[in-house]
From TrEMBL:
Its EC number is 4.2.2.2. It comes from the Eukaryota. SUPFAM superfamilies: Pectin lyase-like. The chain crosses the membrane at residues 445-466. Residues 140-337 form the Pectate lyase domain. It catalyses: Eliminative cleavage of (1->4)-alpha-D-galacturonan to give oligosaccharides with 4-deoxy-alpha-D-galact-4-enuronosyl groups at their non-reducing ends. Residues 417-440 are annotated as: Disordered. Its cofactor is Ca(2+). This is Pectate lyase.
Amino acid sequence: MRMMRMLSFTCILIFCLLTTLSPLIQATAFNQTLPHPDPEAVALHVQRRILAATVSKAQQSCGTGNPIDDCWRCDPNWSNNRQRLAECGIGFGQAAAGGKGGQIYVVTDSSDHDVENPTPGTLRHAVIQTEPLWIVFSANMQIKLKEELIVNSYKTIDGRGANIYITGGGCITLHNVSNVIIHNIHVYNCVPSGNTNIRSSPTHVEQRGKTDGDGITIFGSRNIWIDHCALSHCTDGLIDVTMGSTAITISNNYFSHHDEVMLMGHDDDYLPDKGMQVTIAFNHFGQGLKQRMPRCRHGYFHVVNNDFTEWKMYAIGGSASPTINSQGNRFMAPPDPSAKQVTRRVDAKKGDWAKWNWRSDGDIFENGAYFVPSGLGLSKKYVKAASVQPKSAAMIDQLTSTAGVLGGPRDNGDRVFFSGGTTSGASGSGGRSGPRSTTSSSSSIFLWILIILVLYITTSDGTLLLV
């Protein structure tokens, strides 16, 4: 009888544990079971799109050779068909639909007074709706967030035609969502916040844990496109992509004034990130940057036609055997003779990282910069077989000439005040999971409590009772 009672109680504890962890388990399973494309085929398609845009440039007076911009900016009446932007993505995030097909939602109120009951007309009210929405702004705005901005699936935040500055607590959180486009906004001075209730949909309020102060956090999400934004001066990362996120493109952005720029991957031991696939294209990495452009774990990262004009420690780094495909970038090394290497393998011995597939194809290196390839990246035959000739990095000035926000200051410059700092050093694990609900962030503690209870109840005279 005693054994039956213990078995019953143990089953109840296990049921409670599974109920508590089920949101995280479901999100991880969701991203692992969805199909992942052949990454080499996607990288090849990107190169073909760039080549086609370069060829058509001669036939269009507005053409730049940048396939994203030429797709919509050559239409003088683009503002009458804003949703065409959703057809212009490239790379792993090209399927991000955003709010395509949905109504236009005009943000008229820059306030963020009540995070539990957002005011209609505010950005917070717009992004939590469940239906697809294409969100635009009635005028120039500075939106000072009280707490993290939780964005629901099938949303486009489109700042074209206005100067939109987002700052404050949080800032932007994409948590277990899909099909989000963020375009043409300034994100800066994002600071930690949380431990409060925040509405995440019209019918649900979440108890949220402490955030890190990232500019944009992508957590357990897919089909995401971040384009033509300016990001700087945040407490933690400018963009963090973690917890099984995939199908992401980060393009035409202007990064500046920051230490740890982009983190790709939650933790070396978090195996679901093996499916992470990210395209990083046409970005400008500018003044005041130190490292992580990006810092990668596990997945496949296509870094193509970016302009790296400054770093203090390294540009591209990683651990846990990620694949780095660097094509047609320009790397300008800093004056420091100890920081000329573009790449850094974090906390790894050469005997291990020598097998990682890191390759450089068509890159330009200036002021003593150099890239250390490894694995299949050492084989020129493999590189030529896997891709068309990347567009020459000599075109970087043209391809990245409009990186950052359009229609106003491209970057955030020094006009914003740095109120943050960084939370970890260059060699830290960087294993942040980003903003989380209290349920998710406390799951490990709850698990240990349950284990202790089970062991205590099922122990007889100091010996574990095996059942």
